Amino acid sequence: MVRVVKLAHVGLNATDLSRQAEFYNDKWGLERIDEFGREMFFRAEGPAHHVLTLHEQPTPGLHHVALEVAAPEDVDRAYEELAAGGIEVVTPPAQELEPGIAKAIRFKDPDGFLVELVAGVDRVHDPFGPRDVKPQDLNHVVLNVGDIERSERFYREMLGFKLTDRFIGGLSFWACNVAQGRLLRR
Length: 186
Description:
Elements: E1 4-14, H1 17-26, E2 31-36, E3 39-43, E4 52-56, E5 61-69, H2 72-84, E6 89-95, E7 101-108, E8 114-121, E9 140-143, H3 148-157, E10 162-167, E11 171-175, E12 182-185
Parallel strand pairs: 1-4, 5-8, 9-12
Antiparallel strand pairs: 1-5, 2-3, 3-4, 6-7, 7-8, 10-11, 11-12
């Protein structure tokens, strides 16, 4: 089983990259740290290279969820386990798939969400700068799934998530590291 240690970042599709960048910078207090092609990367005040990526796309929505594993060799091991489990691997292990990430792999979860496993995330120690709002990090993501049991089984058995709470109506909370981030399923 692959062991996810942290929710790393989230990628969103942006139909107007400049306008979305302005929103996340001015309203959310994130700081643009890098740009790569038609993608922009934003950091929070914490040490992670980025917590948000914006991808210029014709339709808005979730681009991907990135989950951090402990070491680059875990990305290679994940590739073998995912492939053996019949999971669709979109991008096999690659170095520098995006700035600030040493190694990553992208695959589709059972509901078709693009998931990225990353390792070797650069740490930024530069001062964050003056802002009224200073987000520290990303700590949860909510995914609406078609089959909650199938989705829960995948994240538990393939990625090592643990159930922390369950509510009437199909909302469940899952943690990869109880002290870190949560993945909510409904």
